[in-house]
Amino acid sequence: MTRRTRRYPIGAELVAPGEAHFRVWAPKARTIEVAIDNQFHSLAAEGGGYFSGAVNCGAGARYKFRLNGGDSFPDPASRSQPDGPHGASCLVDPFAFEWSDAGWSGIKMPGQVMYEFHVGTFTPEGTWRAAMEKLPTLKETGITVLEMMPIADFPGRFGWGYDGVNLFAPCRLYGSPDDLRAFIDGAHALGLAVILDVVYNHFGPDGNYLGQYSDDYLNRDGENEWGDAINFDGRNSAPVREFFITNGRYWIEEFHFDGFRFDATQSIHDRSEEYIVGAIGRTAREAAGARDILLVAENEPQETKLVRPESAGGDDLDG
Question: Which residues contact 212 (CB under 8 A, 6 or more apart)?
Answer without folding.
Answer: 28, 67, 71, 73
